[in-house]
Amino acid sequence: MTTLAGAALSLAKLVSNVRSSTATGGSVTTLIDTARTEPDDFFTGGTIWFLSGANLGKSAVITGWVLSTKTFTFATQTALVAGVLYAASPWDYPRDKLWEAINRALQGLENLPAEDVTLTTVADQEAYSIPAGCEDVRRVEIATQTAAPLQYFVSHHWQIVGSKIRFHWDYAPDTAGYNIRLTYVGQHADLTTDAGVVSPYVHPDLLQWVAAVEALRSKIQERGEDDATLPKLLNEAQNMATLMRARHPVQDFPRDFVYARAYD
């Protein structure tokens, strides 16, 4: 499972200067690493990722880096202690820019399969409104239990009528309170927290290189022609993104076979 925090770290390793090490101390708002030698503010405005301990899987914006005390500062976390593994990137690609690049990359990958479980059966109800964003439905499943494990079964007796899913006559759920799971294809939802999950249909290598293209394009727009290395890096990222699209394409999710209606 790839999270937004993990994807951001992978992206930062491609476009920025990520340093990984082990904390020698800390608190709820600081991490100390006596082995660091970067100058004051080298990391200020950048991102720190916590790779072990109570904050595993989280990241934070670095609000300060002081060489004399070997101290990172950031918003309140669970207290940091010696031995915690971390990674940190400098200010050139802030966390919000990494997140933006990842979300643009995901939006550019069309026809991604996704699931929706917001519908619940109503006894003997044939038609259900399709949730927003789920218009291209490929599979309809109904839970057989109301508590985990839900044990879904696939229905082959439904059709789309306007903005509703309509079960065929005599195949509508006859009991209330069971989840209806829809598999559909569409655009990836924006991820806005560290724990946001990338679709399992997107290979991590594909995502990081497509996101690298987005991040480098934004950086070129920001700096103009001042940095001659950026166009070269962008060209390399575009070549790798093309290779990853061929190697790890997003697989289509075909529509399930559905029986013809037994009535009209």
Net shape:
elongated
What's the Cα radius of gyration?
A: 24 Å
| Structural class estimated from helices and strands | alpha+beta
Number of H- or I-type helical stretches? 4
The run of helices and strands is: HEEEEEEEHEEEEEEEHH
Overall pLDDT level: 95
**Residue runs with pLDDT of under 50 for 5 or more positions:** none
Biggest sheet layout: 7 strands, antiparallel
Portion of residues in beta strands equals 25-35%
Report the strand count.
Answer: 14
State the end-to-end distance: 45 Å
Side by side, the strands of the main sheet go 1-7-4-5-6-3-2
**Helix proportion range:** 10-25%
Characterise this structure.
The chain has 264 residues and is of the alpha+beta class. Among the domains are: 75 residues; 75 residues. Helices cover 25% and strands 26% of the residues. It is built from four helices and 14 strands. A seven-stranded antiparallel sheet has the order 1-7-4-5-6-3-2, covered by helices on one side. The chain has a four-stranded antiparallel sheet with strand order 8-14-10-11, with no helix packed on it. Strands 9-13-12 form a three-stranded antiparallel sheet, with no helix packed on it. Strand 2 and strand 3 form a beta hairpin. Helix 1 packs across helix 2, helix 2 crosses helix 3 and helix 3 runs antiparallel to helix 4. The radius of gyration is 24 Å and the shape is elongated. The two termini are 45 Å apart. 29% of the residues are buried. The model has no long low-confidence stretch (mean pLDDT 95).
